[in-house]
Structure formats: structure tokens, C-alpha cells
Amino acid sequence: MSGKIKSWVLERVPFDLEATTHMMSEVLLKEPIPGHMKNWFYALGATPLLLFGIQVITGMLLTFYYVPSPDTAYQSVRYIMHDVRLGFWIRGIHHWSATLMIIFLFIHMGRVFFTRAYRKPREINWMIGVLMLVLTLGLGLTGYALVYNQLSYWATTVGTNMLKEIPLIGMPLLHLLRGGETVNPNTLTRFFNLHIGFLPTILFGLIVLHILIVRLHGVSELEGREGEPSYSFYPEHFYHTILLGLMLLIFVSALSIINPPAVGSPANPNVTPHHIKPEWYFFAIYSILKIIPLQTGVYLFTLLLLTAFFWPFLDDAVRRKWPRVRMHFWVGSAAILGFLFFTVWETIQP
Amino acid sequence: MSEHNDLTVQKRLVGIFSFLLLVILIIVAGYETKKTREGKAVIKVSGVSKQCVDCHTGKGVAVKAIDQWRSSMHAEQNIACYDCHQAQEGDFDAFTCPESDIVVARHPTPNDCAECHQEQVDEFTNSKHAHQFWLLKNADRAVFEFPLATRNGCEQCHQIGNIWPDKSVGECDACHAKHSFDLAVARQPETCGECHIGPDHPHIEIYNESKHGNIFNAKGHGWDLSYWSEDQDGIPLEVPVCTTCHMDANGVQKSTHNVSARLAWESQAPWSFRTVWDQEHLGDWQTKRDRMESICKSCHAPDFTDTYFLTADLVNLQYNEIRRLFVRWTTRMTDDGVISREEANGKFYSDPVLNGWDEEPERLLYYAWHHEGRRFRHGAEMMGADFTQWHGIWEVQEDMTEMMQFAADHGYAEARAWVASNNPVKWVPYALYDIPGNAWGIPAVTNKTPFLYNNYPDYWEKVRANVRTAYQAGLLSDSEWNLWEHRYENRDHYLGLKYDADSTFDFYKRRNDIDTDAFTKQAVNLQLPSASFWEEAQNGK
Hints:
The structure holds 2 protein chains of 2 kinds. By secondary structure, chain A is an all-alpha fold. Chain A has helices at about 1-10, 15-30, 45-60, 75-80, 85-115, 125-145, 150-160, 170-180, 185-215, 235-260, 285-290, 295-310, 310-320, 325-350; strands at about 30-35, 230. A two-stranded antiparallel sheet of chain A has the order 1-2. The mean pLDDT of chain A is about 90. Helices cover about 55% and strands about 5% of the residues of chain B. In chain B, the strands form 3 sheets. Chain B has a two-stranded antiparallel sheet. A two-stranded antiparallel sheet of chain B has the order 3-4.
């Protein structure tokens, strides 16, 4: 029976099934992976991808009930949390998967950074990765703005205000994001579009490119372990990844019940809360910007971003000049410790 | 550094930082998520107010007031001490803080609140909460009672309508208790009940007796009453509290601080009359009634609401007819010199149609209006059956009986004839209103027993004429008259007269007979063996 169905389809969609199956098997399943990746730790690279998949699915489910209008956004989020069956769970997973996705991105980038997996010829993939980090943070920013409670409204106002200080593109970018001079009803619909359309589409494209480049190059070997024997992606690494995904799902489900996200109080443009805070992943930037002047801060972070973007080339230049200097250990450690310090500092402020 | 060392260092760094990032950032994210649910605002105070807070806290003076303020929305908006307690030299309540040079206002008035709450202050100023009626007449205060008596009595409640030296009116924190100004406190029925209480306006008691109050007392303790009614989709409570009907929005109309906007009767007044209060802004009594009806109809069926309202309206009209009797007698007795008015220096301090304290008819007239007459009306309006009946009309009738007895004792032939009469119809010496049936259902037996129904075949025609007169005088609306007519034309149904449930009634009559036999045997016919000591004394023992 299945043979008859197969021939019926192949007659109407004429492709070489055997050749395609063989190619897919070679490319996807039999991808050679260096032996060091048998360690579970090295499956963590797939976790941001798994979490992205979870975000897409839960995000699509949320759009069944979410209404992106200033008059109804907040009420629709309340409705999801209190009235829709399992709405609180889906929103909780979406909220916590966003957090974990960013955490695992940092961990993944840290691993890539400290193992210098960005070294030639993989510089472009590192740069794509930095772009993906920026897009993910953008998704976090736009996502939380959609709740349209006091926190999200005012954090969006303050956050987009900072764009003004970016040289050259600051004001046009501000207008593009807000749909006007000040935060207005257009802003919410733009953020909604960015969050569910523009940003995920670009991110998806970059994810495909990122994985493709990894596949073309092969997984980067550890310095000092070059030439180690490789093994097939399927079944071992594949199932490690699946199991990790399932454990992540259990973990975010548990978090969404133990510590669910708030609905908060509805956005009120006439009432400025005394304390406005962005989401935790911007705490470090927020904390530093409270210490130094805004414009200086914007220049500083632009510089840091560019440094991160072009890091493979910087690192290579230093290595060639001073071969014994392990700059990346110091820079990476300082960056992570600094990030953690300022994040925790901002957290414990009253 | 050898490549082997490099690898080791890499592994250690990746391991340590991955662990740190995962643990610390999940804790941070969890903590922040929890904080957003708590919604506790961070209060910071600055400027002059910071001096107030720091000094008061340091010296332990009125510190609980500061704690209350910290929990308020004012504190969240950084509205602090000096924003309300600011004063200029020469202000009626200005004083200089003894520990600094700050000039402070002892009494923030509605003028201060109006800086931000102009709409609410305007609404309030136009309401009867701001109306100082009790000062307009030579009332019981400072005549029957001495001034000191009213300080912590009358003046405390009527402070809500205080006229301040700065010409503002009112006391906003009468309901929004300072310094938290908590909406939940303002909305709690007991807040209104601080003043709307007692024998002359037992509103909190009536509310607690009513089904609304009963359900609120049973289930309402966990309810969050701090909501903004205009942000709600309709009425968010299962049963109303006072503000629900008298002030809050219901999805169809806005909220108001003008409690006169939804009241169609002046049923606290000596005579019930359709309100004409601020018609220019609030509309006529029918518009005000419609506003109240809209609230009731958020929950109740129109049929129930309409019948209930009509019955309460007829109670107000009936009260007027009863009062007419009292006024006729006190006026007559005053004119005849049987009772007299209090007078000093050519000015009267009592009024035969209003009050008086040392002669029985004056006292009876006053109580029949100010106490039981109000209870009769307000109980009927707000579902306090006991107040309508035992604390209301029953006591009004007793007052009437005493009035007639006094008149009879003082030589009035008409009153003597009334006292001497054995005709049960004497208990209604005034024109009557009525409505076939009640709002609760169809009673199959209740209306078969009244004396008037059974002995006066033209009863309903006479009542109809009275109701029509009230309607033609503009005291009932078209829809009310139509409802009454409908009930009149179908009175056999609404009075239950066309239904035969006598067998059920007979069942209970037989049970009652058994009870009667029992008390006759146990009490009436029980003869104790010896006479009382009094009888013995009388018999010379």
C-alpha cells in the first residue's frame, strides 16, 4: 500500500528519492563530530536552537489570544494567564525559555570563545553568532514590551530613548522603532511585528546559515586535540540533544508553575513609576549607564559590540604579535565577571 | 603555555563560567520574575518632605502616619508630606514646625486635594455630602443638646460637609482615611457605616440585614476592594457594597463622587419629595433614578428591579400621608395653645412641623419623621425588612396611637372618638397607597387575610385613584404607572387570589391548632395551688 502511495507521489513530484535520501543521510545524520563532543557538555550548543523552537511554538500559541492594541493588549495577557486553559503554562514556558535561551547563548558563546572556535576559517560564523545574540536580545526587548503593563511601557520608553544617543543612526532608528517621536499606539504594533515577524525571520535565516557553515567546516577541533577520531552525529549526539530538549521542557514547565511571570498593573502613560527597570539581561548595561553619562555609555557599548563582532581578527592579530599571550582568557573572564557583577548589583538595588 | 595546558585552562574556564552563568542568572531571573508579581513599589522621598519624614521618624512622632503614607498611591507617585501640608504665612491653619522653619498646614482642605483631584472635589462639592442642612434649621444640636455634646458626636460625622475658612467644603479623608487614602477602605461598607448608622439612619444595619450585606459578610472578606471601577468590565463584585450603587462605574456609566446623582427621593427629609438637587447638572429625579436602576439591572432582572423600586416609591408616598396626620395635629395643638414652641428673644427654637422636645406631640412628630419614619422608608428602599417593619412602620403606628391618645386626653373630640372606637379601620386614618403583590413572587395565601381587602370591596379603586393622582402630580414615571396598572389589572394573579393553595395553608393551620392546644394546656390553663402574696394581703391574711 505504501509503495502505491509512494509511486503516486513520485509521479507528481518527480525527484530522485533514493539520491535525496542518501544525501540527507550523509549531510544530516552522518555528520562527523569530533570525539570530544561525546561529553554531554558539548550538546549544550544545541540548546539555544531547541529553545528557539520552543519559543516559536509557544509564541504562535500565544498569538491565538494576544491582541496587539494598547486598549486590549494587557487584558488579553490577563485573559491568557487567568482564563485560557493552560494559558499560564504556555506563557510561563515562553517567558522562561526566553531567559534560558539567553543564558545558554552566553554559555555557548563562552564555550566558543574560550576554546577559540572562532579562529580562522570560522570568523564569519562567529560574526553571525554575535548578530544572533543581538537579535535574541532584541526579541527579548520587543517581547516584554507586548505585555503593555507599567513595567513594559516605561522600560520601552527608557530603552528606546537611549537609541537617540547612537551616532548617525540613532534618531532614525528611534523613529523606526516607535513609529513617531514619542511612544504611542504605533509603537506597540511595531514591536509586535518585530517580535513575531521581522526578527524571528532574520534570526531563523541566520540560524540556518550558522549551522550550515558549521556543517561545511565541520565542528571546530579543540586546540591540542587536532586529528582526534570523529563519530557520527546520529544516533549519539542526536539523542543527547533530544534528551536535553526534553529536560529543558520539564525544567521550564516547572519554573512556569513555581515562579510564573506577572501580569502587573496596566500601562498608564500618565503615571511614571518611581523605578523603571529593563529585563534582567539588560541589567549590566543599565547599571553601567547609571554610573557614566548616557552618551559616553552608548559609545562605550557600541565599541564593545564592535570589539565582540570583530574579535576573531583582533585575537588573531594579538596572537601573531605575542604568540604566548592568551588574551582571550583574560578578556573573556573579565567580560563574564563584569557582566555578572553588574547584573547582580542591579538586582540587589532596592 | 603548552597546548595541553591551554586545553586544561579552557576546560576549567568554560566549566566554571558555565556553572556561574547558569546558576547566578537563573537566580537573578527568578528573583526578578517574583518581584514583578509582588508589585511592591519602592518609595523614595525627597526635598522638604524628606526633612519631615526623617525628623518625625527620628523623634517617633506620628510615625504610623508615615507608615500609612508609605503604603499609599501618593507615595508611589512621590507625593509626600509637603505637597499637601504646604502653607503660607497667614493661612488659617498655618503654623511653623517647632523643630524647623517649615511653615506647615495643619488642615489640608479640599482645595489642596483639588490640585490633582479637581473633578472629584467638584463632584463632591455639588453633592449632599457637602450640604450643611443640619445647620440651616434650629435643629436638635445646640438647643436640645449643649454645644459640647456635639463636638465628638454630630460634628464628627457632619465634618464631611465642613465649610472651611478657605471657603472649600468637605473632608476627603472621611472616606479615604489618611494617610493611606486606601480605596479599599473607602469602599468598605463600614466606612460609610461610621456615619450612616444608628436609629435615625441605620444604613449599615439595613445593609447588613439585606441579602447583599449577608453575602458580603459571608464571602467578601478576601475581596480586593481597591480596584478602579472605571477600569473594570462591569461590576467586579458578586454583591454590591455601598459605593457600587451610589458611586462606582458599572461599565455603562462613569463613577462619581456626587452621591446625589443616583438618588431620586429625599427620603431623609421630613416630607418625602422627589429630589430637585442640582437638576441643571444632574438632571431630574427620573434621570437620577435611571442611573441607580442601571446599577441594579447589572445583576437583577428588570421585572424585579422595577417592582421593587415602585414598591419603595409607594412607601415614600405613603409615609407622606401618615406624616400629614402628625402635622395636622401638632399644628392644631400649637394653634390652640395646647403645646407651645420654644422661644427666646422673639425667635422660635422649635417648630410644630419639625421638632420639639418637652411635649409629647412634638416628640412624637419628630420621631415619626426623624427616626422610625426614616427607618420605614430606608428599610423599604434597601431591603432591610426588619427596619421597614418592626423598627419602622410599627413604631410609626405606635407614635400615631400616642399622638391620638394625647389629643384625646387634651379634649379633642375627634381624637376621643378615635381612641374609643373599636373599628379596626381606625388604624389607617390616612389615605392609602398599595401595590398588588410584592417583588419576591406570588403569595397564594398572604393576601387573603388583610382586613381592608376583605371588608372594603372598593379598596383597590380607591388606592388606584391615589396612585394615579401621585402619577399625575409627576411623582411616578410613565413606566411606573404602566407597571402599576398592569399589576392592578392582573391583581388576582399578583395577589395570589386566583390560586387555591388552601390545602397547604390548612396543613399549617392544623399544626397551629396543635400549638394553640399546647400553650393553652401548658400555660393558659395551668393553675398553681396557692394565691399570690398580694391576693393574700388583699384578703387580709
